[in-house]
Amino acid sequence: DCGYATYTPQADGSVRVQNCCERLPNTTVKCSIGKAVVSYPDVFPLEGRFNVTFGGPPKTSNYWILDTDYDNYALIYYCKNLSESKSAEAAWVLSKQRTIHPSVQDTVNGL
User: Fold this and answer.
1) Is residue 57 part of a domain?
2) Which ranges carry the Lipocalin/cytosolic fatty-acid binding domain (predicted)?
3) 39, CA 20 to 30 Å: which among 3, 7, 13, 77?
4) DSSP labels for the chain?
5) Cβ(93)–Cβ(100) below 8 Å
């Protein structure tokens, strides 16, 4: 499966999030539409923390930008509480290209 995301700024200051997955071998594309808002818009400088929802109630800072060079990549961390004693965590790299340059890969691997 090959995933990709599209982020589109909205007039209200939020960001439309479209996450898609291309399922092989028949290349069926399945997409989810969500909304991202800055978690703490009054903090200066702005932190890379967002509340991202795909329906349902807003989450609290569940999507953190840990690192970016603003041109090639952004390293994202996600955490969701499943219960009082369990959570699900994930991290991934966003890029404007389907592949990233080996030097960028080295940078990300070093974080």
Assistant:
1) no
2) 4-104
3) 3
4) -EEEEEEEE-TTS-EEEEEEEEETTTTEEEEEEEEEEES-TTSSSPPSEEEEESSSSPPSS-EEEEEE-SSS-EEEEEEEE-SSS-EEEEEEEE-SSSS--HHHHHHHHT-
5) yes
Question: Could you give the number of structural domains in the chain?
Answer: 2
Q: What is the pTM of this model?
A: 0.76
* Residues 23-77 pLDDT 10s: 777 778 889 999 999 999 898 988 899 999 888 776 676 889 999 999 989 999 9
> Residue 80's domain spans which residues?
62-110
